[in-house]
Amino acid sequence: TSQPLPPKEKTLFNRILKCYEQKQYKNGLKFAKQILSNPKFAEHGETLAMKGLTLNCTGKKEEAYELVKRGLKNDLKSHVCWHVYGLLQRSDKKYDEAIKCYRNALRWDKENLHILRDLSMLQVHMRDIEGYRETRHALLQLKPGQRAPWIGYAIANHLLKDYTVAFKVLEEFGKTQQNDYYLFDEEMVYEHSELLLYQNYILQEAGLFQQAIEHLETNKEKIVDKLSWLEYKGDLCVKLERLEEAEKIFTSLVNRNPENHSYYQKLESVIKPSNEVERLQIYDAVSAIFPKADSPKSLPLTFLTGPMFQERVDKIMREQLKRGVPPLFVSLKPLYKEQEKVKCIGEIAEQFIRSLEANSKFSPDDEEIEPPTTLLWARFFYAQHLDKIKEYEKALQLINESLEHTPTLIELHVLKAKVLKHLGDTAGAVASMDEAQSLDTADRFINCKCAAYMIRNDMISDAEETAAKFTRENVSIDEYLKEMQCMWYEVACASAHSRANRYGEALKKCHEVDKHFTEIIEDQFDFHQYCMRKMTLRSYVKMLKLEDSLRSHRFYFQAAKAAIKVYIHLHDEPYQPGDRIQDEKESSMSNAELKKLRNKQRRQERKKAAAEERKKNEQHDKSGKKNHTDTILINPSFCNFCQISNPLEQAQKFLAPLELYCSGKFETHYLAFQIAERRGTLLVMLRALLRAQKVAKESDMPNLHVCRVRFAKK
Which first-to-last residue range defines the signal peptide (predicted)? Predict the structure, then answer.
């Protein structure tokens, strides 16, 4: 620093740093005041910067920025000032600017561990992996005796696919540790086990299968997670074609968990059965050992045909209907891709119902008499079957007959709602689902389904009341669902508002969904250090890969699609303040009365916005944390979303992630074509058209044809 402090002030400055670390912000400000009140140090750069950083933590952002910039101006050669400015930028999520500040700080103090650590976290967060490797290497050179720099450098090389270096770094790290150090502490045992499994994971990704299996065998006693050890070894044996060994491993895995479908697939790939009978023997052998397991009974149905399929499915249906298992249809649903199997299941269910109605038996030859509930579940299953094959009237008739017999069975009301929805009777579907909800008010699933059906019928206020039964007290339903990131609700509301031409409300919900995904991406910041400290390295690498393609999720796709359609509409028909659709009450008002009503609504919205802002500030003051909320979401005035000069640019922001992560969907390219057409960019139109042709299905052909014609005309 160009402004060194004498011992007394230096002691006070160190106390400011300590108070900041311990979140004792009032004491920190008091010590800063003591230094700055001395005329000699009134413009001391580092103290001004630390005071600004402390004020930022108490919510006074503008004052904080002013002080930090002033401090930096007074002492441009201070690494503290640059570091503090970087922390301030980071708190505002301006990560690129923060990285620049950290690099400037390192110009004046190249070996500062805090700055290097903060810089490395931002680099991996922004996926500047090359820079991350450099920073981690610098940390490793400075602190070779600590574990974190070794692990961080290994992960950096792994992410850059430099597997050999990553493995060697971890090997060297192991040599620096005392032998059997991990045996003295239970936590260290698990951490060392995770480190070894991570090393093996790197070898597998590098394609060094022989080396990986040798590594597993060598460290068998040190690896605590025996399930992962077995799974890794089984996969490696398959790749190395050590099939006998692989068969033993996957057999033991099936015995550990007979409901895991992937184990059966791997066991089949090892045994390589030549026909259906041999394949069936695998599952029958497991079923004999675990008679209560469902998977070894249901999985053969996917490959069996003819009489063997009929015999097996008949047996499973009898067992499940006797026990009254509602998800029987769900377990058989994957078979509905093959028409022969669908026909066979339907015939068996019909025969069961006829026989149970006639003599309370599954078939006339049976000795066992079935209780009346078996007939009820058989009808329930057959109604689900009829709904699946689109025979909705027959399904509805069967459900009504069953409800006359047992009007309190919730599953029947839920199924009736589903069938009515497929028939297009959304009001009737809501009534049935509401009846189901009233029969069990403590069931959260039924409550959510009821709210979803109400939204689909444009009963948003009723849906809010229904959903509010499971929300926290004294919190508005919108705030609670936003806090819980309840995206299915927001997507459904966006669609409902869009249908009713309430474009501002629809866009608000779409932006909220987009904000949730941004928050999820931001949340990974907390894990960059935590995962290395806790040694959950395999999960950490998988998380980074997941975050990179997060916006491929269907909720984001649905919200983005709805937002793009609204923005295209707003481009074609720009919003006018008087465009809001009037209800019956409003349509009967005079212009003066209507104007008065609009003014009143605007005042209420402003009051609500002010109340929300005050509430957030109070929460923020209590926690001492900064609240990051986009301005566009603080103001509930929906007109703000519609009154924009560049709707196509806004639509493009939603489209970009879809083109990146949802390029396999026709709708992505169809929307891209529509935006490009309005912008008049012919090459982008052509690109969207060619991409759409590649992924188009039969149902997409009409839209594709329209695009071709419009492109030709353009």
Answer: none
